[in-house]
Amino acid sequence: MKKIASLLLITIVSFLFTHLIAQEKNNSIEKAVLQLKDALLSGNEQKLKDISSSHLSYGHSNGLIENQDAFIKTLISGKSVFLTIDLSDQTIDLVDKTAIVRHTLYAKTNNDGVLGEVKLKVLMIFQKENGSWKLLARQAVKIPV
């Protein structure tokens, strides 16, 4: 009976430990998504650089693809400005040092002085680099507002 109780206790502790580790990883990804959101809203060059990979492929819903330099330049120049960003329906899947994040993004924008609104489905790939999550790839598609 003691062996069964010990085995059951070890199984429960192992399950809880595994669950806590997975939850911590999800929390760190959620934090990275919020850091990206903050960087997009602020247009701060250093924040944008810190959250994105030097290998970034940033796909817009209109088909435009930018690398890290073009992505940052567009935002810090004021050509593309996010006034608000609301995220919903977020899912996170972890595979080793890679995270697949999907969500719906609703934003108010000011692009080249033209106010607008976008509603997008977004797929992002984050990769762990030197202990930090970095945006490696992003693709957005339009959905009706």
Summarize this, please?
The chain has three helices and six strands. By secondary structure, it is of the alpha+beta class.
Can you describe what's shown?
By secondary structure, the chain is α+β, with helices and mostly antiparallel strands. The protein has a single domain, classed as Nuclear Transport Factor 2, Chain: A (Roll), CATH 3.10.450. It is 39% helix and 45% strand. The chain is built from 3 helices and 6 strands. Strands 2-1-6-5-4-3 form a 6-stranded mixed beta sheet. Helix 1 packs antiparallel against helix 2. The longest helix has 41 residues. The relative contact order is 0.16.
CATH architecture: Roll
Please indicate the percent range of residues in DSSP E strands (runs of 2 or more). 35-45%
The tally of beta strands, per DSSP, is 6
Order of helices and strands: HHEEHEEEE
Number of helices: 3
Annotated CATH topology: Nuclear Transport Factor 2, Chain: A
Strand order of the largest sheet: 2-1-6-5-4-3
Give the end-to-end Cα distance, rounded to a whole number of Å. Answer: 62 Å
Q: Can you summarize the main beta sheet?
A: 6 strands, mixed
